[in-house]
Amino acid sequence: MQLFEHNPIKIYNSLSGKKETFTPIETGYVGMYVCGPTVYSNVHLGNVRTFMSFDMVFRYLKHLGYKVRYVRNITDAGHLENDADAGEDKITKKARLEQIEPMEVVQRYTVDFHNILNTFNFLPPSIEPTATGHIIEQIELISTIIENGFGYEVNGSVYFDVHKFNETHEYGKLSKRKLEDLIHNTRELDGQSDKRNPQDFALWKRAEPQHIMRWPSPWSDGFPGWHLECTAMSTKYLGEQFDIHGGGMDLKFPHHECEIAQNEAAKGKSPVNYWMHANMLELNGQRMSKSTGNTVNPDELLSGNNDFFSKAYAPSVIRFFIAQSSYRSVLDLTNDGLLASEKGFYRLMDAVNLLEKLEVSKASTININAWRQSCYDAMNDDFNSPILIANLFEAAKYINQIKEGKETISAEDLATLTNTMNIFVFDVLGLENVVKNDSGTDKLTGAVNVLIKLRQEARANKDFALSDKIRDELAEAGILLKDGKDGTTYSVN
Ligand code: AMP
Ligand code: ZN
């Protein structure tokens, strides 16, 4: 197997808190697991950001020539409200509210998830296992954990004994928490739990009579704990130890911490060599989250039908916006940020589309091989996509200067430049070549924004007759103005 331009990759490992040289367990092969969505509602753009970060990692490793087995699960059972050990199952709750079967909820939002990922040009994972399809594996794992002395049964539910585990292992090593601190900071109402200690977590829960999603087990008719499913599915397809495990930062504790504990308790091995955590997407300065309602769905962003942004954005523009920051930085989604990315994206596409029209000379005025290497260096440095993009813009500038006759390029170098641009723009960043439609949407947006501004001026002058006229006549023309706290936006009827 040939690995291209294979300077060692460095990955920031959340477990050690350092960038480490990536050495796969088996040369040439990579096993990667990423926690997938809980399919009880539409994915928001924050979810998309996390999955996009790992789509880029997958794309780059594949490009380098690794044979990657990428497993991303679908959580279709066991994830309770507030990520807790008690309360209603998120999917069952949705089914109750909508008066449909839980599996109808699962189907609806799995389809939505796939549609969104297709729109954003994601590569499908190698395996997409579901929690409900792996109940037997989860029951086996629980039995082993009990046999090894780290799990106990109470009233048909099974819990992981965190205190017992911590006597011989280190609970909290990923999230850098100490059990003593957790003990001080955990508050639980007396008598509400069967657990020996509040820090213990559920491996199996006995189902209450009204709980529809239930399976027989040696302990009760019930359902598995959310943390357990990822341990069962990751190790089933990738082995007891595998290379990369990813997810959003918010999953580090307790979810991933519990995955480590479960695998160490069952198999005596820490499951993952490199833990990667993608940072959070914010919307106007606040974390995007289903629970607070501070979300924008991809559909709303793509159609322009939302309260936050002045216009619609193409999927590749959003992909580009996300890739312009490192996956480890917090990213704030703002209208200004999107507008700037849109400009940059089309500038890059214009340059790519110029490549085949360039004339070649005898010699080049820049060192293309050094530039190409700097693209690899950026990605090899913990998948640093913003630095990669800075390099791509360097190339765009050079392409424009060749076009203008200010720089020159040899035929051989032009082939390298074209090949490298194609690799990084399309294969690695996953962008799609969209030619800007200058005649349509953008000009309309410009015109409507002029009218929005005139309306604001009319209002400021207390000329409400004029401001209402602008709004009403636009509405008649099928353009609806919406006044939000961050200004006025429009949608097309
Ligand atoms: P969930 O369906 O809530 O389990 O989330 C699916 C994935 O999206 C997980 O990896 C979360 O960490 C991630 N996620 C949730 N909210 C955000 C956010 N605001 N920014 C980035 N990733 C997020
Ligand atoms: Zn998981």
From TrEMBL:
Segments carrying motif 'HIGH' region: 37-47
GO molecular function: ATP binding; cysteine-tRNA ligase activity; zinc ion binding
Major localization listed first in the record, in broad terms: cytoplasm
Cytoplasm keyword on record: yes
Reaction(s) this enzyme catalyzes, per UniProt: tRNA(Cys) + L-cysteine + ATP = L-cysteinyl-tRNA(Cys) + AMP + diphosphate
Enzyme kind, highest EC tier: ligase
Chain residues that bind ATP: 290
Cofactor note: Binds 1 zinc ion per subunit.
Subcellular location(s) per record: Cytoplasm
GO biological process annotation, one example: cysteinyl-tRNA aminoacylation
The Cysteinyl-tRNA synthetase class Ia DALR domain, residue ranges: 374-435
EC number annotated for this UniProt entry: 6.1.1.16
Obligatory cofactor(s): Zn(2+)
Ranges spanned by the short sequence motif 'KMSKS' region, renumbered to the chain: 287-291
Keywords on record: Aminoacyl-tRNA synthetase, ATP-binding, Cytoplasm, Ligase, Metal-binding, Nucleotide-binding, Protein biosynthesis, Zinc
Residues annotated for Zn(2+) binding in this entry: 35, 230, 255, 259
One cellular component term from this protein's GO annotations in UniProt: cytosol
HAMAP family reported in the protein's UniProt record: Cys_tRNA_synth
Subunit structure, as described in the record: Monomer.
Protein family membership: Belongs to the class-I aminoacyl-tRNA synthetase family.
Protein name (database record): Cysteine--tRNA ligase
Organism: Algibacter lectus
